[in-house]
Amino acid sequence: MAATVGFLCCASTGLSEEITYRKHIQPLFERQCARCHGEGAAPEYRLFKENSSPWTAQGKSIRMNTCSHMVSFTGWPNTGALMRRLDDGASTADGKPGNMHENLGATQEERQRNLALFKQWVGAWSLKRWPEATKEEISAIRVPY
Predict the structure, then answer these.
(1) Cα–Cα distance, 117 to 111 (Å, whole number)
(2) CB neighbour list of residue 30: distance below 8 Å, 6 or more residues apart
(3) What angle do CA 6, 145, 15 make, to 5 degrees?
(4) Do residues 121 and 19 make contact, with C-beta atoms less than 8 angstroms apart?
(5) Is 135 helix (H, G, I), strand (E, B) or coil?
(6) Between the N and C ends of the chain, which has fewer C-beta atoms within 10 Å?
(7) Residues 6 or more apart from 40 whose CB is under 8 A from it?
(8) Alpha-carbon distances of 11 from 17, 18, 61, rounded to whole Å
(9) Residues 6+ apart with CB under 8 A from 138
(10) Smallest Cα–Cα separation from 125: which of 77, 95, 81?
(11) What's the angle, vertex CA 119, arms to CA 117 and CA 121, rounded to 5?
């Protein structure tokens, strides 16, 4: 599985190309995620946490339409949240994919290709929450703009 993800990643972006938010993640977000997590569709984190019911009833969730939003769900304060939601199950003991994995694409091939982009962008793919994540693990997160 890891070899497949690595191959898809290299095949889709080239061996030396750095995965960045602007060039790769933002367009992917616009295609696959914006309808539920975009600026016009979703509230800020704290507003969502105050009362999530009206948003979830509409199939909406937390706003994640900027690099800053995504970084907060990758490194801190919501350490690993993005990774837990998008993971294909390869990183879990039970093999169960995250609740947003299916939204990465219409086919398993597309989902794996898009997951590979996210994994390359993040750099240190870990499902750990704060404070279980070590300083070294958090420091290894890349998320280039």
Answers:
(1) 10
(2) 38
(3) 25
(4) yes
(5) helix
(6) N
(7) none
(8) 11, 13, 32
(9) 75, 76, 79, 124
(10) 81
(11) 70
Q: Considering the entire predicted model, what is its pTM?
A: 0.85
Sign of CA dihedral 16, 22, 23, 27: positive
Q: What is the pLDDT along the chain (145 residues), one digit of tens a residue?
A: 444 344 444 444 555 799 999 999 999 999 999 999 998 888 999 999 999 999 999 989 999 999 999 999 999 999 999 999 999 999 999 999 999 999 999 999 999 999 999 999 999 999 999 999 999 999 999 999 9
Distance CA 34, CA 104 (A): 12
Residue with tokens 């994540």: 133
Tokens of 4: 């497949």
Helix (H), strand (E), coil (C) string for 52-85 = CHHHHHCCCCCCCCCHHHHHHCCCCCCCCHHHHH
* 83: amino acid identity, one letter: M
The CA distance from 145 to 13, in Å, is 16
CA dihedral 106, 111, 112, 117 (to 10 degrees): 130
